[in-house]
Each structure stands twice: as C-alpha cells, then as structure tokens.
Amino acid sequence: MNISGVLVKAYPENIVTIEKVLSTMEGVEVHGNNEDGRIVITVEQDNANQLSDTLVEIQQVPGVLSASMIYHHFED
User: Fold this and answer.
1) Residue 65 belongs to domain with CATH number
2) Which residues have CB under 8 Å from 26's CB, separation 6+?
C-alpha cells in the first residue's frame, strides 16, 4: 500500500468543483483547502504505478495548475 500526501494548486474560483472531481477518484481523499487555491489530499494506491497514474489524472483536471507529492509512505 502506497500512501501519499499531495498538494494540489488550483484556480481559487474553481476550487469547489475541483474538490468534487478529486473526491470521486479512486483512492483520493480531500482533507481541506484555502482561499488561495491550495487543496490538501491523500492518495492510497496498491502500487507506485497506480499512484503515478492518479497524479497524472489529477493534473489533467480542468482548473488544476499542479499536483505535487509532498509525502510518501509504503506499507506491505
């Protein structure tokens, strides 16, 4: 199991819509945001390839400027 903390930077005016899209993605949990467009999420996936695919999928959401993994933990 891969557990990662991810910081998503988005246009502030789209933050509610983006949070809704992110929360529908498999393994993604939205934890909060602030008024300047930062969204904190965790991503739980079985392997690193799935994690990479999820990060790419997040970056392709309209209104997302970037998605950066800021923490990673691996458990058997």
Assistant:
1) 3.30.70.920
2) 54
pLDDT digits (tens, 9 = 90+) for 27-63: 999 999 999 999 999 999 988 788 889 999 999 999 9
pLDDT of residue 75: 81
Report the 10 Å Cβ neighbour count for 54. Answer: 23
On whether the CB atoms of residues 4 and 75 are closer than 8 A, the answer is no
- Which structural domain range is residue 22 located in? 2-74
Distance between CA 27 and CA 6 in Å, rounded? 12
- Residue 64 CB partners (closer than 8 Å, separation 6+): 8, 9, 10, 18, 58
Number of domains in the chain: 1
pLDDT at 18 exceeding the cut of 90: yes
